[in-house]
Amino acid sequence: MARTGRPGISAEQKNELWQRWKAGDTLSDIGRALGKHAGSIFGVLVAKGGIAPAIRIRRANALTVAEREEIARGLAVGSSIRQLARELGRAPSTICREVSRNGGARRYRPSLAEERASMRALRPKPCRLASYPELCALVADRLENRWSPQQVSGWLKATHPGWREMQLSHETIYRSLFVQARGVLKKDLLVHLRSRRVMRRGKMATTAGQTRDARSDWTASGGNGGTGGAGGTASLSVGSGVVIFTGGDNAPAIIVTANGGAGGNGAPPSDSLNEVGGDGGTGGDAASGTAVTVTIASGATISTTGFASNAIVAQSLGGAGADGASVGGFFNSSGGAGSAGGTAGYVYLNTAGTITTSGDASIAVVVQSVAGGGGNGGSSDSVISPMGGNGAASGDAGGVTAINRGSIRTNGNYAHGILAQSVGGGGGSLIGGAGSSISVGGTASSGGTGGGAEALVRNYGAITTQGNFSDGILAQSIGGGGGNGGGAGGLGSLGGQGASGGNADVTKVYNANLVSTSGENAIGIAAQSIGGGGGRGGGAMSVSVGAAAAIGGGGGAGGDGGGVYVRTSGTTSSTITIATSGDYSTGILAQSIGGGGGAGGNALAADIGVAALAIGGTGGSGGSAATVTVINNAGIQTSGDRADAIIAQSVGGGGGTGGSA
User: Fold this and answer.
1) What is this structure's pTM?
2) Domain match, 190 and 273 both
3) Where are the beta strands (DSSP E) in 297-353?
4) Residue after which a domain boundary falls, among 120, 141, 161
């Protein structure tokens, strides 16, 4: 049968292909010269990582094809091993070994014997990276930090002088990356190469017109990341008589989300004396106003039976702010600034249906508005004067409302009846410190506020939970934590300032029907407004032979807790509307808690000579708490040990510890 399909590339064509590749010809030029498609040329090149295979040379004393054919003819006419050895001028042991390796006297075939000998002659000598795992780990770590192979090679020679086993050339690194058959450096590390290539290029190849990171011998700046896209709105209505069921693990019955897109990370610059990292892209906002609406009609049934399978999830998430790029350089360098997180939208849910879950960690109703966290500032590691990039502010949450007029039941641990949260994003921190002669750690940014609208729950139906740590209603407004300031190290060092935590907003819960729990640590109604904790100030360290100075960054202030309001009512004042039967299962827990102040950064200055100055950073002040109101017009019943009926607390945040010097 005739062969179909594309003709292959002959050995002569492959030799010409590699010669042209070394000379710097493009794929298209090579394809036109050989009469082949550029994709076929690419397939040959990428299989070898763009590195031409070494030309194989037969060993001088190896058996030739002609000698193997003589052996086959001699065996066919019954010649002995010694007779064949005399005729070929070889040792009898050589002929005996040749025949026995290739099927014996009756099955010996010269062509197959030649092919097998060629395969056995391959000697893939393990490269140094394969022989020394410690060296391989060091190289992989530096590549992940966007060091070039030339930089890695030079650094190894400088840090391990005289230790040959811990040194290697940049070409060995490239070959280990591009030729994956070596099995030492993972292919994932290719994305950290600045050229973004997947195979080696010849020295004569041009790179004109190719897009890459900024490059300059004197100054280089990385590009800024792009902004995340804005989210739209999402809504769902489930009609009467509809049945929705899932039976597997991690299988929610309903998920309705409207989220902003994440920002893109800033690009690092290429090697130069002065470097500026690209800023991160801003996270996208969720839709303004009501971003998510979910309505469940009376008569609808929604149930799940698996682990971590929530019945209904309604969410609006702000896009996460992206990180600024970290930089190196020699004279001056500035890490890229982190970008702001996106704002979350308002989420509204109204259910009158029957909702049940029977697995652990399977919440009946989840309603969340969570803002995007601010991006981290990039670190700076220049030799003379580095400055870490500032962390970005986070977005604000949009608020949530959950209304239940139906029946909710859960039968599992950590399976709340209703979880309603409005959470501000955390402020961005500095990824790493700055270190050298005069260094300044980046300043962090504040966390987002917990609302903009209240976290509100209204319950007119029955809610029952039957597991440990399974609250009937858990409603929270939480301010985002402030980012940590960056550390610094050098002759003169100033740690970055920690950021303030975000304020929480109002949390309200209205209950007019029975909420019952039967597990331990299962609270009937928990309503909390918690300010975000202040960020820690960056530490500073200065060690010098002359004068040394180090000042730790101050800690950020804690965010304020918002007001909390809980009201219960029944048919009569003695009607039980909250019942718990487990130990440590409080009936109503209402709390407004101020965020704790961030600790000041420590300072260390040591010198041999003139003077040393070290000043520890000031601790941040604690956030204030707000008014907590509980109005109970119905009965509350608890039967477990240490299960209080009502706990109402307004607690200010503790001040941050001052930094040591």
Assistant:
1) 0.60
2) no
3) 301-304, 312-317, 332-334, 346-351
4) 120
How many structural domains does the chain have? 3
Q: Is residue 46 part of a domain?
A: no
Same domain, 349 and 404: yes
Q: What is the pLDDT of residue 149?
A: 79
Domain that holds residue 90: 65-120
For residue 462 the two structure tokens come to 């029955």
Does 395 share its domain with 254? yes
State how far the Cα of 649 lies from the Cα of 29, in Å rounded to an integer.
77
Q: Are residues 410 and 289 in the same domain?
A: yes
Same domain? 331 vs 349: yes
Q: How far apart are CA 585 and CA 565, in angstroms?
A: 20
> Are residues 225 and 281 in contact, defined by beta-carbon separation less than 8 angstroms?
yes
Q: Rounded to the nearest 10 degrees, how much is the dihedral formed by the CA atoms of 140, 142, 145, 148?
A: -100
Cβ(561)–Cβ(619) below 8 Å = no
Mean pLDDT by 10 residues, the chain (661 residues): 56 82 80 80 74 70 87 89 90 90 88 84 64 78 78 81 78 68 56 58 51 46 67 90 94 90 66 60 69 94 95 85 58 59 84 96 92 61 49 69 96 94 65 42 43 78 95 87 51 51 84 95 92 59 45 61 90 91 94 71 49 55 82 94 92 65 58
- Confidence at residue 572, expressed as pLDDT on a 0 to 100 scale: 87
Residue of 410, 359, 412 whose CA lies nearest to 250: 359
Measured at the CA of 629, the angle between CA 627 and CA 631, to 5 degrees, comes to 170
Tell me whether residue 543 is exposed, middle or buried, using C-beta atoms within 10 angstroms of its C-beta: 0 to 12, 13 to 18, 19 or more. Answer: middle
If we measure between CA atoms, which residue out of 176, 426, 408, 218 comes closest to residue 310?
A: 408
Q: 203 φ, ψ to 5°?
A: -65, -25
The closest alpha carbon to 399, from 381, 378, 422, belongs to 422
Q: Which of 203, 236, 263 is the C-terminal boundary of a domain?
A: 203
Give the strand order in the sheet containing 473-478.
254-257, 312-317, 365-370, 418-423, 473-478, 525-530, 588-593, 646-651
d(CA 408, CA 517): 12
Domain-embedded: residue 34: no
- Tokens 């092919």: give the residue: 115
Q: What is the dihedral of CA 317, 318, 322, 323, to 10 degrees?
A: -80
User: Order of strands across the sheet with 628-633?
Assistant: 234-238, 290-296, 346-351, 400-404, 455-459, 507-511, 564-569, 628-633
Nearest CA to 466 among 419, 409, 523?
409
Residue 463 one-letter amino acid? I
